[in-house]
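B., you asked whether I could sanity-check this one before it goes into the benchmark set. Here's the sequence:
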Amino acid sequence: MDRTDTSTDVFESLRGRLFGLAYRMLGTRTDAEDIVQEAYVRWHQADRRRIDNAEAWLVASTTRLAIDRLRRLKTEREAYVGPWLPQPIVNDGLPPDRTLELADDLSMAFLALLERLAPDERAAFLLHDVFDVGYAEIASVLDRTEPACRQVVHRARERVRDERKRFEVSQAAKATLLRQFMTALEARDEQRLVELFAPDATWTADGGGRAAAAPAPIAGAARIARLVLGLRDKFWAVDRSVEIATINGEAGLRIRDGGRLAATMSIATDGERILAVYAIVNPDKLL
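And here's what the prediction gave me:
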């Protein structure tokens, strides 16, 4: 096997980890794939005789590329029409962390929380708390001291801690709630829909100006129930189907119009009621 084949094998063995990092940093599959491809090009251009640890080098390179890309995307996202949510990863079978070597914390709720963080904060937090990278390596990636990186991670953790994983809920419990939601929606049972949501539940929909969606998050069980019934009556297509699927590693809903993916719906729940809904209807994110 020649040197090129060996270097390609090394990269491919780490592709899933690099994609998982880039996706969490940027929130879209397209951007993550671009970053991984750019890291691949840099890997083949590098003098690997000077690289002691291939994984550390590739993680550092991917992180720096993602930070730069996220900074460039900031203005674009600030001008986005309505709430911006990550592009969903929809999977029929095994959750993405099994097939793409993605670690925990892939949920739409968690990724939405990460949008609160500045690019460097997001990188340091993900590297340490999700990908188990040490502070010495993080310091090298960010070109900061280890104490400074500890502070960055601490501040980032504080900013997302209050809402991160408040409840450990099985996927079976989530699927049960989603089935109850589908049944109530089909029956147009407004009272049952209200009962399924926590009183202070929120509904956030990402249409990006390309599909009908509330321009700001909707709060309150009664308002959400009226909203979803109104959406069903106004936009329900003849060949529309709703089914439970794996969305970002968790049970969620996949809505199809014939063979076209029309929307995804992810939830946060305490196991008894729905606390938050994240609906993606922007067709550009459902390719």
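One thing to flag: Strands lie at 90-91, 197-206, 218-219, 240-247, 250-257, 260-269, 274-280. Otherwise nothing jumped out at me.
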